[in-house]
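Re-running the complex after MR caught last week's input typo. The corrected sequence lines follow. Everything else is unchanged.
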Amino acid sequence: MKKIIEVKNLTKAYKKLTAVDDLSLEVYEGEILGLLGPNGSGKSTTINCILSLISFNKGDIKIFGKTIKPDSYDIKKDIGVIFQEVAVFEELTVYENIDYFCGLYIKDKEKRKTYVDDAINLVGLQEFVTFYPKQLSGGLLRRLNIACGIAHKPKLIFLDEPTVAVDPQSRNNILDGIKKLRDNGATIVYTTHYMEEVEILCDRIIILDKGKILASGTSDELKSLANIEEKVTVEVENLKESTITKIKEFKTVDEVEFTNNVLIVTYKKGKNNLVELIDFLKDEKVVYNKIFSERPTLNDVFLELTGKELRD
Amino acid sequence: MFRHNFWYSLKILFRSRALIFWTFAFPLILGTFFYMAFRDIEKNEKLDVIDIAIVDNEEFKNKQDLVATFDELSKGNNKLFNISYVSLEHASTMLQNNEISGYLLVTDSENKIIVKENGVKQTIFKYVLEEIDTTKKIVNDIVTNSTLEFTHYENIYQDAIKLYNESEANIEDISTTNLSYTMIEFYTLIAMTCLYGGILGMTAINKCLANMSNVGKRVAVSALSKFKIVLSSLFASYIVQLVGLFLLLIFTIFVLKVDYGPHIFEVILLSVAGSLAGLSLGLMLGAVFKTKENTKIGLVLSFTMLGCFLSGMMGITMKYMVDKNVPIVNKLNPANMITDGFYSLYYYDTFNRFYFNIASLLIFAFLMILAAFISLRREKYDSI
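Corrected-run output:
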């Protein structure tokens, strides 16, 4: 597959802090690469370095096979960026904002009009084209922010936490829009600290912490790194201490936790853990309301790798 | 794309309420206050006709120079004196009753002014008499040192009187176009409006800097070159600045009835050049100093205020002090280039100094824009 981005040994250090530490990554044509990590893990700094917005201490960055510099306008014309913060003009309407930013890439007026309309349709802002940004809700504002970044139909798109502080409806709309962009052939780098989003969207995921890559791969590949196989949660009205002790003695059980009438049993391995547990609870005459099984999440992987939660 | 950014920059600037207020409304409001404050000062400064008396004795009648001059000064709409020709006793009584500011008593040995108190009117009366004596002395010297016959003395004397009267008339003419206190304040207002364009220049550059705003980040990663973005934004800001300036001129001329005299074209020309200098100063400060927006605004305002202060906008003495002791400061000071340009229109017969100031402002603007572009070229930030 064709490499769109190639980063080698990137290091960016501030006085006492190394924000990006000897990071290397590759992004391939047509994929959505997720950069997952908690706040301060170096995701945005990595993107800013790749875009040649900030200087870096060491490393080599190539986009479309060329080294990018601040005045590499031939490379920049095929890049779209949606920053974490909403970047629009308060004095321009929704349509004017999208048209203005699209016009920084597309000279032809007719073509630009089509592109702007496409962007408006993609993010679902058709009813708000004459609105000013201050008249929009947070979710609509985020959609406008995205439209401004992708209206010129770039080949490579950077989305830096585009769903922060967004309502569920807008989030779904945004995620659907991103999938459409990928379907249209764009290569996407998506940074977030929401693991659910990368699981839904991304073809490959890189987990970052303290400026270093902890792990990378597909969602399934990463989950296989977790030391657990299954997690079963049971809502019970009452549970004796002796019952909990018996569960802990199961061969495949790793950990048992009981708080606020919720029993969580974590298994290292095994195939019929849920059935076995249901039978046991029946024998013990334990009454339960709800019981369900989960596969390990990326948060479990992160916990496994760093000893802390993703959202810490 | 240059045109695209230019039109949208214009749109953004004209829709920005804060900028509209400071660029358009504020100078008009300030101009109105100036007008209200200084209109009465100007009125009060106009001198009333001075009531005086002349002792109508033989000695006075024999001095034709005095008779003719005082006669001239008590005639017409712009007369300086109301003269009562009375006896010594009557003049003394009038003075005691405060009917006159003073009276003139001519004797063989001297021309004497008698006053009851010192004041502006008494000083003017005294000054006029001294001027007559000085002129007469000059004429006498010419006659004494020449080989002309006495008959010619009468001609020379008459010519001298005529010349004197004409010169008085000239002084009056000049004073109508001379720089009044109100005019200085309005020129100061125009100059300050020009220089406050620095805020517009800084706004133009901030829009393109990734470390200054979120929009700046987006613009910085776009495919349009910084040079084109900054130049087109600057051009739009300049248009807005000029619109503000012309509004101010139109408002002061047609509403406040400010008379800029015969040099209105030069006033506009200097304002246009001054605005460019102010704008480019803001651009340079915005590009070179890597600091927060509020700090940059503070820098532009401080720099402008300091320049205005050193150029004598808040007191003309400062300009003379700086010109005398550290002339280089005012030679590099755009505020001084503007004020000096305005003053030169009134204090010099030729436009050489005026056009020198115009050229200085344009060179200043060019250097500021150049410094800004050098600073921006291939700029990367340590953090954003």
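None of the earlier attempt is carried over here. The first helix of chain A runs from residue 43 to 50. Chain A touches chain B at residues 14, 48, 51-55, 69-71, 73, 76-77, 79, 81, 83, 85-89, 91-92, 96, 100-101, 103-105, 107, 148-149 (CB under 8 Å).
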